[in-house]
Amino acid sequence: IKHGLPLYVLQDVGCSPNDHKFNYKHVSLSPSQLISSDADGAIHRAGRFRVENGSLDEASDYTPGTWRRTDVHLENPEYHTRWYFKYFLGKVHQNYVGTDAEKNPFYLSVVLSDQNNQRVPQYRAILWRKTGTLKISLPYSPTKTLSVKSILSAMNMDRFEKGPREILNPEIQKVRVTPERQPGSVNFKFGVLFARDGQLTDDEMFSNETGSENFDKFLNLLGDTVTLQGWAGYRGGLDTKNDTTGLQSIYTVYQGHELMFHVSTMLPYSKENKQQVERKRHIGNDIVTIVFQEGDDASSSFKPSMIRSHFTHIFALVRYNSQNDSYRLKIFSEESVPLFGPPLPSPPVFTDHHEFRDFLLVKLINGEKATLETPTFAQKRQRTLDMLIRSLYQDLMPDLHKNMLNRRSFSDVLPESPKSARKKEEARQAEFVRIGQALKLKTIVRGDAPTSLVTTGLCRKEPWESQSFCSTFPYEIICADSWGQSLLVATDTAGVLMLDETPTLPPVQVFDKTMAVKQMHILEPQDLLITRADKGKDARLYVFRLSGIKRGLEERQLVRSKCDCRENKLEKTKGCHLYSINTHHGSELRIVAAIRTKLLLITRKHPRFSAVATGADSPVEEFQYIREICLCDPPVVMALVDGPTGENDNMICVAYKHQFDLINESTGDAYRLHHVDANRVNFVAAIDVYEDGEAGLLLCYNYICYYKKVCPFNGSTPMIQSNTSDFHFSWNQMPNAIGR
Which stretches make up the Rap-GAP domain (predicted)? Predict the structure, then answer.
């Protein structure tokens, strides 16, 4: 408590010695307890606000930059709270509805998922009730199927007015996402109020038509100045169509969260309105407000009572000291707000401006999250959740007596469907997954997804929206790969060129046209460029160090020719017409080269056994040849699939004739993965995809993309039978290539 962290009590409420279930209990303390808990005076009272100042005497002498940096981290991150979006949405799971003993409706969702990417299956369950949301994880046993009743019992629900019944309609996912959208979980809006030295009332502060040089410097530190007209990002309640809330504002993205600042001097100013109602309408309704006060520490101190707002619960007082180029921070928190971190250093003075920005933004985000736990907001959230659950229950009432809802009531969570109904059930589950994945994608694009998935920033685009890199490129492109902010392109007649992101800079030639590159991969973490050049008997794989190529470009050395790359050839790859690398690799890079019907498996040695330390220009000596595998036909498409252990369970997906096969790297055994029912087959790609640690393949041919999960593995034999997670989609035109 002394360091501003929340207190939790771990309770063992398990039943048997081998089956323990724990509850985390948040302990609420009274304001007097919170304040008296800090003995050194870093937290004291100011009316109905408590004050964090980092030291007793605000005007005491201090030496900036001598404090030890504390662990600055976001508390209660939303990816811990938004379970349904992360673990349920877009996957096959069960949803149930019922009423408890007090006739209050509840909802239950259950999914069988992986435990922390350890390939250990477990059940996750979410219970929605008027009092809040309860989440639980339960172990999976292949010999004992879990029932809905046992899950609810583990959540301390044993009595019901109406037993839970399963909802099979896929549209239920749309309403399941809604209860998780709590305010302040993804995007935040904060007020920024400029106060001149000596100003003592909010009317004076809100009437500042302009700021100051130091204030502008502080705003530049907070974020970017954006034009509101046509703004497509998070707007924080500002008008982005008619300029009624100003022309510009300050915006930034921090750890995936979009932040919009309501800056007093950027909001509309009115000479006739002394109270500046338009400015107060936004800043006065922000939970957190930054007050930037001009003047030194000896000038009149800010007090929360100067601002007439019952909604603002946290004030962050910021002062800039031009003598030592430092910022000083002071936090005022309404007494009902739980303590939140990070704790202010003593003294609360920051000479590193970027460090101060990190500290301030984390403190503001944590403060708003803590405020949402106060009784005022918690009761409002509970009323909203209760109304939402009752409304959803009323919408489902007409269907509660239909057979499809009564089926499997109080039965196993993941039952085997009868053979007669299996095809129908598989079709329903496929539609269930399709709707869920579409909803998940829509939420991500909208910017309302958990921060681990959200695509935010000034350049947010639809996933399928193309972005032009070079609009006037005169050569036909054979292949390409990105290198930092640049693009390495192999052309038909000009060799290999480097394109910079700056459109005004001309392309730089890296290899001349004697190096007819047909495939390439840039692996920046491994400092490698892998290429396949030439065709027929002259084709080979080449490996280069990126650092060596970059050094040559910086020193403006001669463009490399095929003759200059003799030391970069992997000799045993002569005649290679196709190669593939593993994209999910950890420490070991694997390459499979196809030479007609022969597959050659190559790995890169561990760096400590390689020639990296010698500074050799060519990395060829770092690669070793493992084995050869013979096929019946030359492969047209290949992909490497990493097994869960890496011991005898790595696979190679190959496409030839009318089929995709999986080849065991260790034994060479082949397994039929997918047969193509078509007279003519144009194989496009096989792309390895990993989700929650499990491998899958996106098989692309003709107009079709077919997803097939190939994990978990059973020893060295992949489990590739039909799975409810399999799906396919079609293109309007046949693609030439598909990449991730």
Answer: 176-392
CB 190, CB 290: distance < 8 Å = yes
DSSP bridge partners of 248 = 227
CA distance 40 to 52: 11
Q: What are phi and psi of 129, to 5 degrees?
A: -135, 170
Residue 701, φ and ψ in degrees, nearest 5? -155, 150
Regions of the chain with pLDDT less than 70: 1-47, 55-71, 76-81, 114-119, 176-185, 296-300, 394-421, 445-469, 501-504, 584-587, 606-616, 646, 691-693, 711-725
**CB–CB of 213/196 below 8 Å?**
no
| Closest to 231 in 3D by CA, of 223, 239, 222, 240 | 240
Report residue 463 CA to chain centroid gap. Answer: 15
pLDDT of residue 137: 84
Strands 637-641 and 623-630: unpaired
Residue-level pLDDT at 727: 76
- A 10 A CB-CB count for 85 gives 24
CA dihedral sign of residues 475, 478, 479, 483: negative
pLDDT at 519: 95
Sign for the CA dihedral angle at 358, 214, 312, 45 comes to positive
What pairs with residue 122 in β-bridges? Answer: 113, 139
Residue type, 470: C
Alpha helices in 533-652 (DSSP H): 546-554
Judged by DSSP in three states, 549 sits in helix
Cα 241 from Cα 318, distance rounded (Å): 32
DSSP code of 242? Answer: S
- DSSP reduced 3-state for 378: helix
Please choose, from the candidates 586, 498, 488, 479, the residue with its C-alpha nearest in 3D space to the C-alpha of residue 529. Answer: 488
Helix then strand then coil, % of the chain, to nearest 5: 20, 30, 45
Q: Considering the entire predicted model, what is its pTM?
A: 0.54
161: CB partners within 8 A, 6+ apart? 98, 99, 100, 101, 102, 103
In this prediction, residue 531 carries a pLDDT of 97
501-553 pLDDT tens trace: 666 678 899 999 999 999 999 998 888 999 999 989 999 999 999 999 988 88
pLDDT tens digits for 253-267?
Answer: 887 778 899 999 999
3-class DSSP assignment, residue 65: coil
The pLDDT of residue 409 is 40
Other C-beta atoms lying within 10 Å of the C-beta of residue 709: 20
Give the strands of the sheet with 623-630, arranged side by side.
578-581, 590-595, 598-604, 623-630
